[in-house]
Give the backbone structure.
Amino acid sequence: MRDAFITASTTSKLTTEWINSISENLINMYTPGYRENKTNFKTFLDGTIADTNLKNIGQGKSTPGTSDENIFLEGKGYFVIRDRNGRVSYTRLGDFKFDGEGVYRTPDGQSVQGYILNDQGEIMNGTKPIDTEDFIDTPFNNGAASIPTTNIKMWIDPANGKYLGKYEEFEFKDDGIIYGKADGGKIKTPLYKVAIINFNNPQELYEIQQGRFIETPESGRAIIGRGEVRGGLLEMSNVDFGNNTTYFQQAQSQKAMADQIIKTHKTLLQNTIDLMSQ
């Protein structure tokens, strides 16, 4: 016979974890770039256990950023960032800005990755341009990781404050290309393409800190991501308020029932001990 006390205790403990996960979602409902926790439960013979806590990979809505340098990704994939030790991670939160030297960085100093373009807007792989169709087909040839990315460097000339010494301003286009603009916009030159990477199983990416992920064997290797990049915007949290409110109510009811079973079991146990001691 299975022990109802152990089953109820396990259920109470795991339901508390479920409540904490839902609470985190609701607290971060308006946090840009936040990915919703998706915790599911299933019944085992001896109680209830939690499945792996996955992340919701659905699209969040756009919101105005804090700078024209911020970017928003509409579509499937992640921006690529690299720390000062060369370690790569992935994020949906495009709260990037150019630093004093013109390097495109995250708020904590990691460099945003992209592809160098020639004057025709073609991605350069070393000294050779890559045809657009060949670039799109790279998922079938060792993935996009086979095409090296680089730091996006719009070096700012200290003498005149211009990007790369000759562009007064920059512009992001929907395809993720950064253009340098001069002569009142009459001159517009493609310079970089922001790298967008995706995975065959992105739910299995490992979150090393809020909103930042690294590849795992379960996520699969990096492939080309698809989507539009828009300047001056950020992606909001993808938390569904209605669903999480319903889950929270269900979790509270489940925990209340489990705690009542525990309380009843303790009362019966105490009564048994009292009877035996008479």
Observations:
- Residues 139-145 have pLDDT under 50 and may be disordered.
- Helices lie at 4-27, 132-136, 241-276.
- The radius of gyration is 25 Å.
- Residues 91 and 209 are 10 Å apart (CA to CA).
